[in-house]
């Protein structure tokens, strides 16, 4: 009897153990059958797919911040009239290319006439005093006048010369050149027309005048800009401000020029943060030889963060569903799981995986689209 018990108990234990093992082996099959994200593929479909073990590589996150194109403030001139007057002619139109020295407008100025007349009077007075000093010297040598009288005439000459120089400087302030002033002294002819001259070669990007308008010296009549270089200005969020440095190389994209990527250096990064927006202003100098980039265009500045080692997947392996990213991970020879992943910014057809995938796992890199269609078909069939 004891021998029988000793035989039966191990047998029963072995039977129970084998039954438990069979249940454990059957569990994965049940899970596969119930999980809608796991797909069993046929040998024919398997031949059409490419399966690759994912590897890790160096990757850096790219931050995209809004930016705008502005004129280079170092290549812009706001041009006005140095005198008060009424506009008689306008020679430059909005968008017109002009050269340094071109006449942009002409105005009639009574102020200019008065200043020219004052200069001519000062020149005449200086000439009179020169002749008076010459006569006084002759008289003094003949002992006709005293030394004090000669000194008086010389003092009057110095005063006349100072007045002439003051009038000369006033005409220079009013925009007359040395050549114009010499011509005025020779011809003794006063003219009241004043020319508004361009001080920069570029494009007229702003015109604030109309025919017959009275203008003051404080008025900016024209704005001329050299657009061979422009600024790309961006507001960098406070959290990413540490990633930008003056002199650093940056990239940008312009919305209106879809295939146009800009590369340039950051010429300015503000030392202070704007309290209302919590951003730092950064400017990038951009060459614009073909004038394709227009001030006012919207753009994006691309800021690359620190480099990290991450799992890299090709974008061909990514399945987009309900605005989420997925990849098919191989479970065994015939079964694949649709797994959600969180990706970083795409670059050159690949993207870093931030969450959801480990290095060495095998994924479908070619054929993921067909595999997802197969999963949906089986899901619809119930």
What is the topology?
Blueprint: H1 2-34, E1 38-40, H2 43-47, E2 50-53, E3 55-71, E4 76-79, E5 85-90, E6 97-98, E7 103-108, H3 110-141, H4 147-173, H5 178-187, E8 193-197, E9 202-207, E10 214-215, E11 222-225, E12 229-237, E13 249-254, E14 257-269, E15 279-287, E16 298-314, E17 319-321, E18 324-330, E19 335-343, E20 350-355, E21 362-366, H6 368-381
Antiparallel strand pairs: 1-19, 2-21, 3-12, 3-16, 4-11, 5-7, 5-10, 6-9, 7-8, 9-11, 12-15, 13-14, 13-16, 14-15, 16-20, 17-18, 18-19, 19-20
| Main beta-sheet annotation | 6 strands, antiparallel, barrel
**How would you spell out the order of helices and strands?**
HEHEEEEEEHHHEEEEEEEEEEEEEEH
Q: What's the total number of strands?
A: 21
Helix content: 25-40%
CATH class label of the largest domain: Mainly Beta
DSSP strand content: 35-45%
* CATH fold category name of the largest domain: conserved putative lor/sdh protein from methanococcus maripaludis s2 fold
- What is the structural class? alpha+beta
Query: What's the total helix number?
Result: 6
Distance between the termini: 56 Å
Q: How many independent structural domains?
A: 4
Going across the biggest sheet, name each strand in turn: 3-12-15-14-13-16
Give the C-alpha Rg: 43 Å
Low-confidence blocks of residues: 1-27
């Amino acid at each position: 009897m004891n021998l029988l018990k000793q035989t039966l108990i191990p047998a029963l234990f072995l039977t129970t153990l084998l039954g438990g093992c069979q249940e454990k082996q059957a569990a994965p099959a049940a899970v596969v059958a119930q999980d809608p994200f796991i797909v069993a593929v046929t040998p024919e479909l398997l031949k059409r797919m490419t399966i690759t073990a994912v590897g890790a590589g160096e990757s850096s996150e790219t931050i995209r911040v809004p930016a705008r194109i502005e004129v280079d403030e170092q290549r812009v001139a706001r041009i006005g009239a140095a005198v008060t007057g009424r506009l008689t002619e306008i020679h430059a139109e909005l968008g017109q290319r002009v050269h340094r020295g071109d006449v942009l407008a002409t105005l009639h100025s009574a102020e200019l006439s008065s200043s020219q007349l004052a200069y001519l009077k000062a020149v005449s007075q200086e000439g009179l005093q020169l002749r008076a000093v010459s006569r006084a010297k002759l008289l003094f040598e003949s002992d006709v006048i005293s030394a004090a009288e000669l000194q008086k005439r010389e003092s009057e000459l110095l005063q006349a010369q100072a007045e002439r120089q003051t009038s000369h400087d006033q005409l220079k302030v009013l925009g007359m050149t040395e050549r114009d002033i010499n011509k005025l002294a020779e011809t003794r002819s006063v003219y009241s027309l004043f020319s508004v001259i361009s001080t920069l070669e570029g494009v007229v990007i702003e015109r604030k005048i109309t025919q017959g308008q009275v203008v003051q010296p404080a008025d900016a009549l024209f704005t001329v800009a050299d657009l061979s270089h422009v600024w790309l200005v961006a507001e960098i969020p406070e959290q990413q401000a540490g990633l930008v440095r003056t002199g650093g190389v940056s990239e940008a994209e312009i919305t209106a020029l879809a295939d146009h990527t800009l590369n340039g250096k950051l010429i300015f990064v503000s030392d202070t943060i704007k309290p209302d927006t919590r951003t730092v202003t950064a400017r990038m100098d951009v060459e614009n030889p073909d004038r394709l980039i227009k001030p006012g265009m919207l753009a994006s500045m691309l800021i690359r963060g620190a480099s990290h080692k991450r799992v890299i997947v090709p974008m061909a392996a990514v399945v987009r569903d309900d605005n989420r990213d997925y990849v098919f991970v191989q479970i065994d020879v015939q079964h694949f799981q649709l797994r959600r992943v969180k990706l970083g910014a795409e670059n050159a057809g690949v993207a870093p995986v931030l969450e959801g995938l480990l290095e060495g796992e095998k994924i479908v890199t070619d054929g993921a689209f067909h595999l997802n269609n197969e999963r949906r078909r089986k899901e619809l069939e119930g």
